[in-house]
Amino acid sequence: MTKKTAAGDATVLPLEFGERLVAWQKRHGRHELPWQKTRDPYRVWLSEIMLQQTQVTTVLGYYQRFLERFPTVADLGAASLDEVLSLWAGLGYYSRARNLHACARAVAARPDGSFPPTAAELQELPGIGRSTAAAIAAFCFGERIAILDGNVKRVLGRLLAFQGDLASSAQEKLLWQHAQALLPAEGIEAYTQGLMDLGATVCTPRSPQCLICPAETLCAGRKTGEPTQFPIKTRKLKRSRRENWWLWLEHEGQVLLQQRPDTGVWAGLWSLPLFEDEAQLQSHAQSLGATPDVLPRIEHALTHLDWVLHPRRAVLGAEAAQRAGQQGQWVAREALASYGLPAPLKKLLG
User: Fold this and answer.
1) What region, left, alpha or beta, does residue 268 occupy, with left being phi > 0 and alpha being psi -120 to 50 degrees?
2) How far, rounded to the nearest angstrom, does the alpha carbon of residue 73 sit from its chain's CA centroid?
3) What 8-state DSSP symbol labels residue 338?
4) Mind giving me the DSSP string for 209-254?
5) So what's the pLDDT on residue 3?
6) d(Cα 270, Cα 131) in Å, to the nearest integer?
């Protein structure tokens, strides 16, 4: 059974896709991930936030450590932001951690201290977008509502040979409408999980395994002979390169840290004093009577940024340490684990 969409749009919706996907997920989908064994919205929400732009294999360890440290949303809300950032270090996209903390506090402050049961209400919480809200509502409360994360855009874009450019908000809105129209009458949990599983394991970005896909005979993208041309998105972010100098100052087993601004890369995390160039760093070191040692440079790759960091290390006496401390915070080496540090700094301080 198929259905034509609104006039002016040539897309035909293969409505039997939902039934096939539910059956496929039950037989071939993923069933052993820890967040699949619960309808607890806290655990599902935590996994959804961590999985944004991060591979499952990376998330597994972080997910377990977060639950051990913060068993409930109230525990997470009661923690300090530094505690949250310290556990998050290495997952990247640190705004997710800050929103995670803000959302936990918002939920804990609700009259019943729990997550609301609808996608519309969930979307009003900090850091929960439309697709994440729909996933929580579907998995935990059985709401019949569509998700549209990156994997699902790819699956549906190929299934429908969707011609719209997803760099356009109007075209993305149209794909949302198609996603909602494709929902099966029953089995929303298996369908939603099936979309995620299909995008992660079969309908992959560069080498889709069309021959084992449950939608092989329905897929308009496959029929074109070039399924990887879908979905269309013309706007691409260009990689940039950045270079900075780090000054690692020590005094009696303590390290001088400065907290990063609330916006930009590593927002809110604690870092060594950061300088634009070597001359600026050396000038500051000389004002403290220090001659820093040169350490091997660090190459740190972010999503759209290649960042080269040049660490320099110096030990300060009491007077210089007191002056340096006016521009930062001295932290004992054994206490560093409780601070939110960027991954390369954690590795450097070892």
Assistant:
1) left
2) 19
3) G
4) -GGG-TTTTT-HHHHTT-GGG-SB----PPPEEEEEEEEEEEETTE
5) 63
6) 31
What are 243-302's pLDDT values in tens digits?
999 999 999 999 999 999 888 888 889 999 999 999 999 999 999 999 999 999 999 988
The Cα–Cα gap between 23 and 127 comes to 32
Rounded (5°) CA angle 104-110-115: 60
Q: For residue 173, count other CB atoms closer than 10 A to its CB.
A: 10
Instruction: Assess whether pLDDT exceeds 60 at residue 7.
Output: no
Task: Give the CA distances from residue 330 to residues 92, 275, 348, in Å, rounded to whole numbers and listed in that order.
Answer: 25, 18, 17
Catalytic residue from among 16, 19, 32, 48: 48
DSSP 211-222: GG-TTTTT-HHH
Q: Which tokens sit at 188? A: 């929303």
Q: Which residue has the tokens 């100052």?
A: 249
Please give the pLDDT value at position 113: 96
Nearest Cα residue to 227 out of 210, 252, 202: 210
Identify which of 7, 2, 36 has the alpha carbon closest to the alpha carbon of residue 193. Answer: 36
Residue 4 pLDDT greater than 80, yes or no: no
How far the first Cα of the chain sits from its last, in Å, is 60
- Quickly state the pLDDT bin for 90 (edges 50, 70, 90): confident
* Matching residue, tokens 């129209």: 181
> How many CA atoms does the CB half-sphere of 260 hold within 13 Å?
21
Q: Which residues contact 69 (CB under 8 A, 6 or more apart)?
A: 75, 79, 83, 87
Kindly report the pTM of this predicted structure.
0.84
Would residue 334 show up in a list of annotated catalytic residues for this protein?
A: no
